[in-house]
């Protein structure tokens, strides 16, 4: 009875789970996907969107942009960054960079927290997120959350509004961000979230928060978590929205089709920017026996 | 968390203290450190200002568990890193600042090599030199040869000496036949070639990541400011398992930190062959303001600690501290006299079953061996299966290319690319069909392959062309699945070839993972496919970063490298969450670095000298290439003997300190190969027994 490959089917009651906006979004989209990806930790290497090569280019371009933005915000001189963007084999990157440099002056104000990781308890679990940028204005007790979006098409406001990221990021900043605000939690009204689109720099989408919205967010998140905790092994059901399965790598496992959906129709950005907290252990020497 | 007074003393040290905490394994150091981490968070220290530094990921488990729990105060994320991970992160982030000075093209991003891709480039450079007679006298597998040259580069970086001194240092300590000096000169030549190639192509293997950080980034104003702002509190655990590179970083940070807790495990130091250095870890104590010690064990009963000390005395270790009159005998279980190796395995399996029957949870049992080759693992797990014992095993060096699911994908890739001329044998096609199609048995896979596959032109023919009698024998349901797979491959072969990882991805998603195919219900096959795809993808990234290949399809190069064992030769199983309630089967050092004590340990084949002798590494040397080895001093057989005895003592003591109940010694008079065996570990235990008997 080799137990090496035995996978858990429900949340371990003895072990807290690290929730993120991505995992909660997966649950909201499809409970079965959540179970496969986060409970069973099952890698399933099917295509996420077609053409595969273009999808990969898209994801890698997005990752390179995020890196350039992070470098610029950390104080790396802009000239070499501009040269790197110009020399990139993908011409879109140079254009995105140019858009970003126009935004940069607006980001100079206040205190900047780049690639900020925050975490707070959520019931008997934990909620974590990594923010592209949080701009803090201590004198006003105000904060602006910036999120770079590199999707091919600009998502609709209604779609963004329904995403768990829009709920989780301001909520978690209130919960875990008091150390950024002189020891005082940010008032929800003082938090703004901005989605800035690399391809549509003049059309950012802004969301403000409120005390009522914050309280509602807390209740919604706890309700989601309780719902997940209560599910038995067979309770993680497939989404009734079969359209979603076109962009899900587990579609073959769920018998929901063979080919991936077209990249151009994918509203989300793909997995490279899911906001998961990952630690790169590639270079850690393992005992080799 | 219930803490002992000694642990509470650590937690309650002033917030600004720089602590050096030492003690033996099991004395509660890590628990105290975790409690202090939580206390810092409770006291309002931003998590984003705290770094937990560990030598390898398995040692970070207790910190992750604490940080995941709701007991940790809300705030910024605590970073948990290795020194190597920190270096890579900094190089990646601040590349534009240093690329030019470090000798790279600043306009191109850095290409970080994995162990696998570094080995590929080393093979790429060294292979042509074999014709010139390089390494003629070295009789080891070529992949081990490449990895040992890389190991030398890594040691140079971690210890802090120039790469150009590798050959000189190895030669200066050599006291054997002079032919070996030529080998060391060859090692140096290959190391130089590799380094130059990496610099020319913006490739950064592990050694270059460390060097670039150390020479160019560490002292850059922007980087220092960044690190100073983000690392205000450090908890560094198991510093004795870390390298001088990590210790240098800590040494540099300590004076400016708001707090530090460095944890040193006495009697450990198992990663020396990976560059770990106990002596340089100890020197960090001087840079700390408070020195704390923990004695005793919260894990090991006194008889087992005493046994460890007695083994140390038998091995003439000066630091061993045996005491009179301890009842270590009760903690040790000897087998009946067993003549043959299989009898020993039977005994182990039977004992494990008895323990489970008497109420011991499976997770409280570990079966440990110096090495765990597939044959031994197979023989042991067969016996455990027969007795219904749940187990899990850890084999970090299992070959990905040997996994049936990977072999299937690789064979189908060769069939789909006939122009590459890598024709699979009929046997390979049989196994590929067996893996690919659900509900096909080996006999029908063989029948099918015999009639549809012509190895000469590496083509599969349609199921419809088979004689109807044969179709019936194979069954139409299998035939239909085969036909869909064949048609998919034929369609693909007619178009432009895709990158190999894309080919695998589509083949997996569109066919092999669909209902009716072998990967659909076998979750682990999907996992293996994911690992293979990742390997092929990283290979492509590395080649693309270096400017691509001249004319040769990249996928073909990958497949050839897999066949040669250069690529996909190691397979770190990272996906499996440990199932606590299963008997753990592992190499002894892996168990040590998992750092999870158990009630019962079985020491397998304890008469073997594998417990005592160091792995043969003719192209490198963990002791000579250490910071404290005096220049020009010869490494003699006395040194070797001493080093092995020291390592054995530390290993035995480390295992005993991770045992909560009893150690079961498993040995047979004759080894697996039929030779009588009395290895050093067994002899030392006998000596302890004799001494005890003499005392009456």
Give an overview of the whole structure:
The complex is a heterodimer of chains A (289) and B (696). Chain A has 289 residues and is of the alpha/beta class. Chain A has a single domain (18-271), classed as Alpha-Beta Complex (Lambda Exonuclease, Chain A). Chain A is 37% helix and 19% strand. Chain A is built from eight helices and eight strands; from the N terminus they run E-H-H-E-H-H-H-E-E-E-H-H-E-E-H-E. In chain A, helix 1 packs across helix 2 (31-39) and helix 3 (52-74) packs parallel to helix 5. Mean pLDDT of chain A is 90; it is low at 271-289. Chain B has 696 residues and is of the alpha/beta class. Chain B has four domains: 5-89 and 220-293, Rossmann fold (3-Layer(aba) Sandwich); 110-207, no CATH class; 328-397 and 577-695, Rossmann fold (3-Layer(aba) Sandwich), CATH 3.40.50.300; 400-563. In chain B, the strands form four sheets. Chain B has a six-stranded parallel sheet with strand order 4-2-7-8-1-9. A six-stranded parallel sheet of chain B has the order 10-17-16-11-15-12. Chain B is globular. The model of chain B has no long low-confidence stretch (mean pLDDT 92). The interface between A and B is large, with 74 and 97 residues. Strand 3 (111-122) of chain A pairs antiparallel with strand 3 of chain B, so a sheet runs across the interface.
